[in-house]
Structures are given as structure tokens and as C-alpha cells.
């Protein structure tokens, strides 16, 4: 991809800042399940929440959820708007929860490299060509074996998606998977999640792209699973996931995750065609 994030300090552009309590509950739940071991084994359990918005509620919630896995976790919320940092200050709980001025350069007060970076609803306002540069900056700040979770969701967090990105052996971003998430009882057609795909994929939902194939196969499998509807949306979704597997989609995770309305697909199966 072409393009780059302008090298300023802090690096980035102010987001709209909208947020709601529990908006990021679904991705946080996935982070705890998927990266809980990483957090438990970390010598320095630093986690960064990049671009938390006009109110720090989702950063506070992130700390609460991660502390259940690692009580001494240190969560740092970063914003490039000084007014937002000042507004968050009353919610600090040193040394466990702090807020600071920063962007894609990911400064960590007190030092250290984050084992996890959550960047949600941050890149939506950027051009697709800027994603790789942003990912590169972020994974460059990760601790060894660390992970970047970058994605987007709707205003209430009931529909969303995210990419699990690591640092490859060459230092470049190495995306591992795409996770799609729905509140199951809200599903009319699963492809509605396309409007909340990460920036790297949202403009790729067109013929000839693999993510477009996924959206089509999701809707077709959901339609074929209509006979399960009397037993509830969960049973219909489980049948939909099983259908996708039989058609060769590399579905990750377990039945427990699917029951929660999560579908994780290996990145190679959905990566942009060029």
C-alpha cells in the first residue's frame, strides 16, 4: 500500500471522539480469551488504548477486564487532544491506569513497550493507503510477541470487526486473522457487518476481492440455515459457521466463541488482492 502517516508529534488526526459505555465489550472479551496468556506471561504487563475518544470510559473498562487476568496490568490511554487527556485525569489510578498525550508513536509514561495495543475506531477516518504505515508504527512499539488489535464497531458495539496484527520477523506488520462480531439476535443478513470492516478491508467489499466472497458466502450460509431459526439465532449462526467450514473457509476459534457471535477467519483468506 502507498501513503504514510505524517511524521508529527503526536502522530495522528483527532477522531470524532464518540464513545459509549460497553461499546468495546466484545473486542475486550476476545482480547482476554485470545491474548490472556500473553498478558499473564508478560514481564512488564503494559497495555495501550490508542484514541479512546472524548470520554475515557472504554479505557477504564479495558483496565477492569484485563485486571481480572493480570491484576498488576498497567493500562495507558492515549489521545492526541490535550483537552481529552485533561478530562480523563480524574479517572487515573496510578500506577495501574493512566492517560497521556500521544498518537501512533505510542509514548508510554514511565517507559516500557506494550504487550497489547487496542486501536479501535481510529483508522476509519484515514485513507486505506495510510493503514500500513500506521500498523508499522504501532507494531514497532510492541514488546516481543506483542499484539495490535485494530478495528471498528458501531456506536453501541453490537456490530464490529478487528484484525489481530503482530510484528513479523522482518519487522513489518503481520496480520494473523480477521474477526467479525454480531449481536446474534440483531442479524438480518450477516453481511451487514461489511459497513464496519476495518479500514484495510472496508473498500474491498467488491467483486474480485476475497472479503467480498466471504460476505456473499456468509449470507448464503445464513439463508441455508433458516431451518434452525426456530431454535434461536445462536443455533442458526452455529449452522452458518459449520456451512462455511465445509466450503473451505479457514475458520479459527472454537464453538464457544461462535456461540458468542464471533467469527474469526485466517487473514490469508480475506487479505486484499493487491
From TrEMBL:
Coiled-coil ranges (or none): none
Keywords, in A-Z order: Methyltransferase, Transferase
Presence of keyword Transferase: yes
Protein name: Class I SAM-dependent methyltransferase
InterPro entries: SAM-dependent_MTases_sf
Stretch list, region Disordered: 1-20
Molecular function via GO: methyltransferase activity
Keyword Transferase set for record: yes
Low complexity biased stretches: 8-20
GO BP terms, alphabetized: methylation
Amino acid at each position: 500500500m502507498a501513503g504514510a502517516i505524517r511524521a508529527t508529534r503526536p502522530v495522528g488526526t483527532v477522531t470524532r471522539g464518540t464513545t459509549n459505555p460497553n461499546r468495546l465489550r466484545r473486542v475486550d472479551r476476545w482480547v482476554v480469551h485470545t491474548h490472556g496468556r500473553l498478558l499473564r506471561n508478560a514481564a512488564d504487563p503494559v497495555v495501550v488504548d490508542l484514541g479512546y475518544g472524548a470520554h475515557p470510559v472504554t479505557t477504564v473498562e479495558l483496565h477492569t477486564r484485563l485486571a481480572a487476568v493480570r491484576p498488576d496490568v498497567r493500562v495507558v490511554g492515549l489521545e492526541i487532544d490535550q483537552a481529552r487527556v485533561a478530562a480523563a485525569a480524574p479517572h487515573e489510578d496510578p500506577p495501574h491506569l493512566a492517560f497521556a498525550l500521544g498518537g501512533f508513536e505510542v509514548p508510554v509514561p514511565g517507559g516500557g513497550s506494550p504487550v497489547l495495543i487496542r486501536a479501535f475506531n481510529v483508522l476509519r477516518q484515514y485513507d486505506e493507503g495510510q493503514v500500513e504505515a500506521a500498523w508499522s508504527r504501532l507494531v514497532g512499539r510492541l514488546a516481543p510477541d506483542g499484539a495490535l488489535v485494530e478495528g471498528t464497531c458501531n456506536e453501541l458495539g453490537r456490530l464490529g470487526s478487528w484484525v489481530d496484527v503482530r510484528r513479523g520477523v522482518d519487522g513489518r506488520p503481520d496480520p494473523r486473522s480477521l474477526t467479525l462480531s454480531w449481536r446474534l439476535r440483531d442479524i438480518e443478513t450477516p453481511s451487514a457487518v461489511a459497513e464496519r470492516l476495518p479500514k484495510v478491508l472496508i473498500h474491498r467489499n467488491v467483486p474480485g476481492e476475497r472479503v467480498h466472497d466471504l460476505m456473499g458466502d456468509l449470507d448464503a450460509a445464513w439463508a441455508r440455515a433458516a431451518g434452525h431459526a426456530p431454535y434461536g439465532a445462536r443455533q442458526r449462526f452455529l449452522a452458518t459457521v459449520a456451512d462455511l467450514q465445509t466450503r473451505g473457509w479457514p475458520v479459527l476459534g472454537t464453538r464457544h466463541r461462535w456461540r458468542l457471535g464471533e467469527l474469526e477467519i485466517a487473514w490469508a483468506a480475506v487479505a486484499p488482492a493487491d
